[in-house]
Amino acid sequence: MAVNSPIPVAADLKPVAGIELGHAEAGVRKANRKDLLVMKLAPTATVAGVFTTNRFCAAPVQVSKAHLEAAEISGEPIRALVINTGNANAGTGEAGLAAANATCEALANLLGCHAAQILPFSTGVILEQLPVDRVTAGLPQALRNLNEDNWFNAAEAIMTTDTQPKAASRSLTIEGRSVNMSGISKGAGMIKPNMATMLGFLAIDAKVSQSALEQMVKQAADRSFNCITIDGDTSTNDSFMLIATGAGELEVTSVESPEYAALAAAVTEFSQQLAQMIIRDGEGATKFITVTVEEGKDVAECRKIAYSIAHSPLVKTAFFASDPNLGRILCAIGYAGIDDLDVSTLDLYLDDVLVAKSGGRNPEYQEADGQRVMKQSEITVRVKLARGTADATIWTCDLSHDYVSINADYRS
Amino acid sequence: MAVNSPIPVAADLKPVAGIELGHAEAGVRKANRKDLLVMKLAPTATVAGVFTTNRFCAAPVQVSKAHLEAAEISGEPIRALVINTGNANAGTGEAGLAAANATCEALANLLGCHAAQILPFSTGVILEQLPVDRVTAGLPQALRNLNEDNWFNAAEAIMTTDTQPKAASRSLTIEGRSVNMSGISKGAGMIKPNMATMLGFLAIDAKVSQSALEQMVKQAADRSFNCITIDGDTSTNDSFMLIATGAGELEVTSVESPEYAALAAAVTEFSQQLAQMIIRDGEGATKFITVTVEEGKDVAECRKIAYSIAHSPLVKTAFFASDPNLGRILCAIGYAGIDDLDVSTLDLYLDDVLVAKSGGRNPEYQEADGQRVMKQSEITVRVKLARGTADATIWTCDLSHDYVSINADYRS
């Protein structure tokens, strides 16, 4: 059960004009589960994305990046995205690239476009060849299901060890014109995105120029999917895609326009919601932790310290146990690798409780106060460095027995 | 039960002339357990050490570093080390420094020397003030116990969550002169030393000049305690001390001498044994894993990749489960942060089994072969980068349910 994150209600998920979703049970790894998704786009759509920085980036990531570049040169728009679970098609060498390309070709034939107009995505086990025949055999079923009102099934179709689907919709008005957005994400483990999360797809019905969309997706990712971590493992398949179908009222032609600023802010906030859903449903998560580092010299050092806290197995197990063993947080700050950090000016808060003051235990601090906060399901750790004006926030979860169980048993 | 690491037999631990050890039950945190150790040194002894790089380094670490520097200037030798468990005296500010100094003064009064000739060490809970009165009240008991033949009790007296004492002895002959060495270490959690482990003490009866000893301890630490990791948490209290009592036959006056080379090699190998004992008894450890990265451009990138593998919770849980989910290792290599890493030339071995070849799954690789190795209690992961001649080795353990249990319950 995800932390304070109810399962989305299908009726709350709204269509975004210009995008249809179709799912299938292709049996990629297991029978009788939704494991294939096609997202078909209107020809007016623009697409931009950010991808994993893992050097072992998966074959579909390599192909998607190449197809996005090709689309920009040829002017032939991306017409569909195809996502399979059950197999990541990573660490699969030339055969893996051939499998990702074959998937694109099969879908292009069915849709009547070129293979380069398809973006493929995979998630699941690494180092095993993709059973591409099962994927292509499932495509007709997915196309028969194509429907604008199919976001809930789409969210289910991209789940792996997620305990629940992750999806949301929003409508807003910008400069008098309505904008509708829906998005889905998946996560659960191997989550410390460095460019984007495992998989996130966000569609808006505005018409957005390619260059503006590219800036918007980076801006949103840097403040959402790139601020979460479950276990520090940056996946081989992380991808976050922003789709602007162009079928709605709003048009954004330049990053200097007021429409851009308003839409980018809304997309960023919506992306944070989708990203936080991943943490709330992190493998074995029982708590949602916000780590904020303030008054640093620059954002980089604030992030370094925040990640050091968020990745410490000792800090994470203390959260799981609701044990205010808060010296572990100071320890993680100390080894974050900031060589000139003067800890004698540093304050540490747990929600509103001042735990450490000027680098040492706050004389007023009472264990009962720390205990009270540690028992909550949502906790904010706040570090004040007193050496600058920069800050950063990272969202994470605790480390529980279930994380070990889930990952010890993942393939069985 | 530690992995392939039997409990040392007291009779196998040999005295090192020039060092006496005395323990006490001081009740620092809990009653009726050995939690205080005094190591009294002959006036001929030289002492050198390496300490944690954690910016929140503990009060006793700060005092020990200052006393080592003072001894070098004054020429007054270090006469004793005093170690307490149950409280790390870290994150304790000015009061913590005063407590560490008070411990030194109390012991100096009892031994008839200056406080600056005492080195204090603490291990245990962070962010709580050291009950210094209990420590000083326990000193007379420890001094009554002083004995050259007390290494087993000494090893027990520095344990925290360790499941068994860690100690060993060796005798060898260098240039026709006998050398005797005994050492103890402790670890268990918060272990990713960056200069040294939680606590390690190694005594030899050779006479070694201060400058040669300082080089020797760095050389040994870099190839032993600085090559182990349990959970990536670099403690606030890590200290590794090398003591040369000067009471034996061998004398080392310069780092250029053949005696230095032979003794440094023996000390390094012995340090590796003590360091590996910590991993074999890592919190919840069921497997001992050696990660070797070869053919790198430099040692730094080899270590970076080795640590990335050794710290990945997904890799560690796969080892725990004996599950050859080896794509997780490729994933960890990929996100190690080597920007120009070309994975297409990379090979991955699990013991003798070639799992990945030229960056993809080895076509000859059979799951059964990976399964066979994963079931072993000792496993070597070998990565060949094919881009240089450097290599590095890191020792680590798996991540089990017991790690979570131990650290969720540590203070209770």
TrEMBL record, chains A, B:
It comes from the Bacteria. Pathway: Amino-acid biosynthesis; L-arginine biosynthesis; N(2)-acetyl-L-ornithine from L-glutamate: step 1/4; Amino-acid biosynthesis; L-arginine biosynthesis; L-ornithine and N-acetyl-L-glutamate from L-glutamate and N(2)-acetyl-L-ornithine (cyclic): step 1/1. Gene3D superfamilies: arginine biosynthesis bifunctional protein suprefamily, ArgJ beta chain, C-terminal domain, L-amino peptidase D-ALA esterase/amidase. The record marks T123, G124 as: Involved in the stabilization of negative charge on the oxyanion by the formation of the oxyanion hole. Its EC number is 2.3.1.35, 2.3.1.1. It catalyses: L-glutamate + acetyl-CoA = N-acetyl-L-glutamate + CoA + H(+); N(2)-acetyl-L-ornithine + L-glutamate = N-acetyl-L-glutamate + L-ornithine. It is an enzyme of class 2 (transferase). Substrate binds at T160, K186, T197, E283, N407, S412. GO terms for molecular function: L-glutamate N-acetyltransferase activity, acting on acetyl-L-ornithine as donor. It is found in: Cytoplasm. Keywords: Acyltransferase, Amino-acid biosynthesis, Arginine biosynthesis, Autocatalytic cleavage, Cytoplasm, Multifunctional enzyme, Transferase. The active site is at T197 (nucleophile). The keyword Acyltransferase applies. Belongs to the ArgJ family. Heterotetramer of two alpha and two beta chains. Catalyzes two activities which are involved in the cyclic version of arginine biosynthesis: the synthesis of N-acetylglutamate from glutamate and acetyl-CoA as the acetyl donor, and of ornithine by transacetylation between N(2)-acetylornithine and glutamate. PANTHER family: ARGININE BIOSYNTHESIS BIFUNCTIONAL PROTEIN ARGJ, ARGININE BIOSYNTHESIS BIFUNCTIONAL PROTEIN ARGJ, MITOCHONDRIAL. This is Arginine biosynthesis bifunctional protein ArgJ. The gene is argJ.
